[in-house]
Specification:
This protein folds into two domains: about 45 residues, no CATH class; about 45 residues, no CATH class. About 30% of the residues lie in helices and about 20% in strands. The chain is built from three helices and five strands. The strands form two sheets. The protein has a three-stranded antiparallel β-sheet, with no helix packed on it. Strands 4-5 form a two-stranded antiparallel sheet.
Length: about 100
Amino acid sequence: MKALIQGTRVCEIKNEEYKVHPSLKWVDVDDTITTRHTYVNGVFIPPAPATLPPTKDEIYARSLRNSKVLKAVILSLNDGTLIPGANVSNAELKAIIKAKL
């Protein structure tokens, strides 16, 4: 197999090469190389692992780290019936915020 390279970018993988612009070059590869790899100094660098979006618990925990953000979240999600510390516990507030995220 051949990889078509432009700079550090793997443009495509083909079984056979074809004529290309002089700024491109063909490099022999095995079937583990994909167009998500980069090509640097003659070495294929694998792509970074995909990251999962944060969970509701992670979003909530991040919000707690900054009380200004938490206050803004509470205000934006509050229909006027929630009074933190008075008629809703922290656990109830957490559940309400997570449900509305």
